[in-house]
Amino acid sequence: MNQATLEKMKHLKLYGMHRAFSTTMETGSISYTNDELIAYLIESEYDDRESRKVERLITSARFRYRAFMEEITASSSRNIDKNTIGRLSSCDFISQKQNILITGSTGVGKSFIATAIGYKACTMGYKVMYFSINKLFSKLKMAKADGSYLKEIDRIEKQDLIILDDFGLQSLDNLKRQDFMEIIEDRHGKRSTIIASQLPVSVWHEVIAEQTIADAILDRMVHNSLRIDLKGESMRRKKADQKISSE
Q1: Which one of 69, 135, 161, 208 is least enclosed by Cβ atoms within 10 Å?
Q2: Do residues 45 and 21 both lie within one domain?
């Protein structure tokens, strides 16, 4: 009878419940009351579904690498403290529809922090997408050519959080400005966006390269945003030096 029950669980895709009940049978853990056993099986199924949901969200986000909030180094020399990390880790900014602007020189950890926030958001059930911004513009250009542009823009708009990395490596031409404006306009006051850039916010006007559109974009992005201006030496160089010294 137990085997038939296990087969039905699998057929119904109750994988967490199946695993828990199977383990209970194998280990002979029959000390549960009926209520306790039901609660245990339901809790196992719930945990399994939540875990699979998080993995789906992480896969859909298409991060370049794994990063976790616990790995972020807080120090005054980097201009980021534990309180800021804790605030970001709570992901309250998403429910408050705030943006985050992360700036700093090459290698100081902008992308890592942005990705770590994205990972944390996924574990809390938020829909996230990560983009290298120049690759995003290329993708949107191809989408216009094959007729899928509106579908792609709609998908971006529906994400609880998008991460736009490497902003400012190239000035925006008219096509990119229009795409960028549409993304920011669609999300303004409704969803959160993280932008990571080597350039300080004060020169973003020059990157956007058109005064009126730049004013409109920055008014929507900078207002009600959390700003992190990272300082210090390159974390990549520091890790490389530590690796060499330990060899």
Answers
A1: 135
A2: yes
